[in-house]
Amino acid sequence: MDGPDVGGDQAFLYMHTKRDRKTRRPVFGTDRTRSEHKVSSRGKDLSRLVLSVSESRKRARFQPALLSHQHLIDFSPTQNWSRCWSCDLPVRADWKVCPSLECRADLTRELSERGREGKAASTAAAQSSARHRSEELSDEEVEFEMMKEGESDEGESGKGQQEREDDQESFSDLELDETKYRKLSQPRAQNGLSSHSMSEGEPWCLRINDEEWNLEYRKQHAKVGKKIFNNMVATSKYNLYNFLPVNLYEQFSRLANIYFLIISILQLFTSLSPTSRYSTAGPLLLVVSANMIREVWEDSARHRDDREVNNRYAHVLPADEEEELCAWKELVVGTMVKVGKDEPLPADVVVLCSSEEGGACYIDTCDLDGETNLKLKSSVAFPPGQAGESAVRKMKAELEYEAPNKRLYTFLGKLRMGKEEIAVDNESVLLRGAVLRNTKWVIGVVVYAGRQTKIMMNNKKGKLKRSNVEHSTNRILAGILLFELAMCCIGTIGHAIWASGKNSATWYMPYLENESNGEKAAIWLSYFILLNNYVPISLYITMELVKLGQKFLMDNDLDMYHEATDTPMTSRTSNLNEELGQIQQIFTDKTGTLTRNEMEFRKCYIGSSSYGFGTTEIGLAAAAKQKEGGEGGGGGGGRGERREGGEGEEEKYADRRRAQIFPDAKCSFDDYRIVERMAEGHREAAEIRDFLLLLSVCHTVVPEGNGDGARGERAGEEERFQILNVNKFNSARKRMSVVCRTGSGELLLLCKGADNVMLERLKMEEEERKRVERVLHGYAMEGLRTLVLGKRRLSEEQWSKWNEAYKAASTSLVDREEEMMRAAEMIEQGMRLVGVTAIEDKLQEGVPATIKKLRKARMRMWMLTGDKMETAENIGFACNLLHDNMNIERISVDSLARAKEEVKRLSQAWGGREDKGGKERALVVDGASLLHIFAAADEDGGGGGGGGGSEEAALLREFVEVARGCKAVIACRVSPDQKRQVVTVMRREEGGPLSLAIGDGANDVPMIMEAHVGVGISGNEGMQAVRSSDYAIAQFRFLEKLLLVHGRSNYKRIAVVIAYSLYKNCFFVTSLFFFSFYSGFTAAALYDSLMIAGFNIFWSSMGIIAYGVLEQDVSSSSSLLYPQLYSSGQQRLDFNGRVLTEWILHAILHAVICFFVIARTFLGSIVEEEGREMGLGPQGTAILQALVIAVNLKLLIITKHLTLWSCLFYSIGIVLFILGGSVHR
């Protein structure tokens, strides 16, 4: 496909290599003259390279030479230049994509190192490139020529030159980066959406109010294997067609089930089995069927939910027809839908109009992410006269947009109406599942439906976590299998010796001497079948039933029920129940996890005064620490600032009722000087007014009701502000700002953000800066969260210039979010300080006591937070994470070399992983230091060990050793990805301890999913953490019982369940092997086939299930009172090779006693009335009855918490054996 024609028979590309002599800046601008598309330049002796391509030749091969408007070439000597690896076009080093419209190659993949400096090098490289391409394409007419700047350029009008210089001068008043402005303010390419600007796959297209075209478009997509689905969704795991294959595949992916399947095949299709054909196949079929029933029961609920959702009704607007109802599942891409107030969105929809003036609408995403605050969205920005319901119903337009993808917060597209194009971004997209609020109706067009909606594409299951005990069990079963194979070999050798005829017992069987090798080898297979139950067939199903019972007890524990929010504890998986009893390190978020995430305005700094009295829990802890350490000052509400009078005199201004015009019992602000000074016209009254107005205007709170702009009310007067631009907050910017117009017509930039990003953007004297820093430090010592407020006045000319860049960025189809950030950066400079807010986020109830007990349980604690180091450290003292008897070290560096020095110093000073008496260790490290320390982890893909022997890898390993020796580590100023990285590094190191991550927000999801066990808190930051977790609780304090009581008990129970299962099967099968001494090692079965099949399923399984659910070695209160008891799981004292060996030896010993005592007593002595022996039935039944009683008594003996239910289940096995024996007879 040919690229766009840029004018006439020839396309000219001009690239200048000098800067304007007067301004010393790169000169930019665009012109279209006659048949040329050129980048004009200013100054004398400028060289230009002209590429002339004949229209009559194959233009398609030369389209890489055509440039997009987004990249205007500036060959300044100071720039670092190279060449595109694909089309050899000169490109700048900081570009990510080739500017050629047809090439669009990824420059981050391969950039040549041929940088050029100066005009001479630039010209030489261009000529070399031209000759090279001319040689390659000799059949084309390509002509390169160097041209001196002629009189035509110098003859441009002086008026245009003066206007350009005036623009530059006026715009420079804003202190903007002109390079950024040049890139932002240029018109965008109009030739469609490139593959690089869009997401994976070709862009999609639909036509509004043209159902026939949309239907044909969907058919064409289906023909090439790129089906566009309807709106039906299926969250169920199985359907009628895939249930058997999928379920059987999952069940037989377990080694044990494959093993028993092989045994069953040998029994069913060969004559080698010494037992019934169905003695193994029957129990295996029962176990597999039970699992299938459980899966069907769980999946049936998903099917019910899917049917309910798919059969909901939506209002659709067919072209030129009346509104009608349509089931959700029948909606398709291109359908026009109308959604009413409080109705959920049926699919991903681009809003075309709404009932609100300006096309605004509000949505509630609580069902998607749990966040209860409303989100403001807007319809597509149509030109005047083309918006509204009637216009949309008649509209003929084409929407081109990115193919389905998982990115929830980005959308790129454009709507064509004739020759006009309108950019469409995420602000106009409503996602499936969101609910329309505070808006009567919206009309939109479906862009993604069904499984291709963004929510459904993100609805992926997390990685399957298997417990450490389960992994160990698989290895143990492999060892048991080897033991069984050895026993088969022993039996085969015994039979060979017995059949050799060298003993008196075989004198009457002379045919044994002629037994072939094949017949002797068949004995090995017979033993393999006979002894197959060394591997317990019921182990996995028993463990699943036990874990389900444990899950039920945890979910219904009233001690972990939060009555205030009606939130019970929820186990989202049962696979990791025993893992809760082996945790050695905990990674916790702070906000909303340790604290309540209920922000309360406590103090503020305005002008030169700090307002607000009292202190916080964290401030009290810091003050106590300073008092004990003999330190003075430091905390207490910014003591560095000037106050009115002494401390005692200030307290008289503390009156909550007078300080709050609208009293709020939840607000503790008590300084009424603000109100008085505003009323009295104090010297700080104007600053107080600016402070309050900034907080009133610069926010993203969605109010109830209607209204334009923002409205403030003071002293009975109403003041309106028109919001012109909003630079939104994100984790990278750490601030937000608005440009607004006051009622008097004044233009203001209002900004608020974190202190570390705001202070560098404020204009203030050094003395004032130090005073503000002291105030911030004082607030931080009290654990208060701070925001710095700034303000700037703008002229109309300044704003209009910047607004062009802002609009260009907001409609960019390439890296729109980054462009918006660059635009915001341009204007958020040179602001004046308005004030500082200090907000308290109180600790949750019981957090200090919980952390104290977890530390007593030998758990190492990591607190990962975005707070300042001082704030984080004081919170650590307040919540008992840190204490005065700790040796606390800090790492805060800005370079890799300094990081190495600090880590090496600590490694040498502490020398070892564990504490060796004396003070406990604690470490406080900031995110910038972790960035250098984890460099090796980045290169190694997030692994913990670091690759190779590089210095970075050595630094990482040394840091891990230092951190392992600390009882507490606080990581401050960390990003969500750094949280995940910390967990990854500390988890994946060889021999690493089991880790638990707990958090409440979406930014905690990466670390929750990375840890061995993830716990989500259903707090105020949504439900994403809960949905990604393994266990969910409402308060941090519930973690105490979850780990110390349930976790510890679950680990001990599961350890006994596995050991007992191996014990009873070893007991049972060994007795079968002992009969070989009486049967000539012929692999004859002592027990009846029904008895063999029933042993694992009925006779010995009921009691162990009850034990695994109900057993308690100590009471719950004792587990909480003595957290040290938890260490048995951390040290794996209940499940290890020594313990399992003891169980196996006990099984063999008990088999010897039961078998040989009963065999010597009964074998051969039970006869019928006629004097004939009754065979092996009575003897086998007697031995098996003794065995069943012994294994159940063994369980009774080891039980420490005997209940009526336990006794009932323990006796069921014996009763069932007696009843089964009677029926069998």
Brief summary of the model shown:
With 1225 residues, the chain is of the alpha+beta class. The protein has a nine-stranded mixed beta sheet with strand order 20-36-35-34-21-30-33-32-31, sandwiched between helices. An eight-stranded antiparallel beta sheet has the order 23-22-29-28-27-26-25-24.
How would you characterize the overall build of this protein?
The chain is of the alpha+beta class. Among the domains are: 110 residues, Calcium-transporting ATPase, cytoplasmic transduction domain A (Distorted Sandwich), CATH 2.70.150; 202 residues, no CATH class; 189 residues, HAD superfamily/HAD-like (Rossmann fold, 3-Layer(aba) Sandwich), CATH 3.40.50.1000; 175 residues, Calcium-transporting ATPase, cytoplasmic domain N (3-Layer(aba) Sandwich), CATH 3.40.1110. Strand 24 and strand 25 form a beta hairpin. It is found in: Membrane. Its EC number is 7.6.2.1. It is an enzyme of class 7 (translocase). One of its GO terms (biological process) is phospholipid translocation.
Could you name the key traits of this structure?
single chain; 1225 residues; alpha+beta; Calcium-transporting ATPase, cytoplasmic transduction domain A; Rossmann fold; 9-stranded mixed beta sheet; 40 helices; ATP hydrolysis activity; P_typ_ATPase_HD_dom; transmembrane helix
